[in-house]
Amino acid sequence: MEAAGISVEVIGLGEILAEVDKLDDKAKEVQDSSAELRGYVPLKGVPEEALAKMTKLRLAIDQWLQENEIDAFAFQCWDAIERFLGIVPCAVMSMFSQKLIPAACEGDVTGAVGMYAMALASGQPSALLDWNNNYGDDPNKCVLFHCSNLPKDMFSEVYMTQHPILSDSVGPENAWGVCVGRISPGPFTYTRVSTDDAAGVVRAYTGEGQITDDPLDTYGGYGVAEIPNLQVLFNYVCANGFEHHVAINQSQVADAIYEAMDNYLEWDVYYHQ
User: Which of 3, 80, 223, 247 is the most exposed, having the fewest neighbouring CB atoms within 10 Å of its CB?
Assistant: First the structure.
């Protein structure tokens, strides 16, 4: 990343949690941030203690972002923060992505780069998801899914609840904070950036598709994606060792992404068409 002109700053999760501990619940900045969180998505049943922790986590991250002029970030979202702070950080990350400061899951720095590129190209928020299951017998459809921290503008409807998987390992009382809902149907662009350390190069792929309204019953943030020649894309992804994460944006900006990464950054880019 540094060789490509992208500076990477690192802070330990413990340092962020230390800043959370310093914040006073009654401070004006905490109260203002709490009000914004309460107006972000429906919160039926979410405990006050969990909301207070989310509010202070958001302020601690935001302070670090501003001090270091950070444009996008990746977060260690499980399971240390659930065990030590007692919340899931998804909703906090969602709020940053909504404001065009992409927040990538699971420490995925290059995932954040793909999210940021599409946010710059479209002026709309990006999300990071998993290439997930096949959808029925259609070779050009698959499920896109994450727990989730998708920005609220991506959802048809959304609400906050507990993380159903982490509830089993860290306890349901420590698993509040995921944004659940279906991705709105319509066109989207997908991008994945990855580093090939052995070859010393940055690789990427990009393309466009449609989020459909096909029936789907699951949890987290999810949708059915339809992409022409999807199996050709998946063959490329697997053969070239790309991760299962992919960034998406509800826009059609693959041309711009390809031009920027291939022509100007001179990365190894596959444009799926």
Answer: 3
Number of C-alpha atoms within 13 angstroms, CB side, residue 247? Answer: 34
Q: Which two tokens stand for residue 167?
A: 């509830």
Domains in the chain: ranges and CATH: 10-272 (3.20.14)
As a whole number of angstroms, the distance between CA 229 and CA 233 comes to: 7
Q: What is the pLDDT along the chain (273 residues), one digit of tens a residue?
A: 888 899 999 999 999 999 999 999 999 999 999 999 999 999 999 999 999 999 999 999 999 999 999 999 999 999 999 999 999 999 999 999 999 999 999 999 999 999 999 999 999 999 999 999 999 999 999 999 999 999 999 999 999 999 999 999 999 999 999 999 999 999 999 999 999 988 889 999 999 999 999 999 999 999 999 999 999 999 999 999 999 999 999 999 999 999 999 999 999 999 999
pTM of the model: 0.97
Structure tokens at 85: 């702070």
- Report d(CA 205, CA 194) in Å as an integer: 9
Q: Which residues of 160-180 are buried (b: 16+ CB within 10 A; e: fewer)?
A: bbbbeebbeebeeebbbbbbb
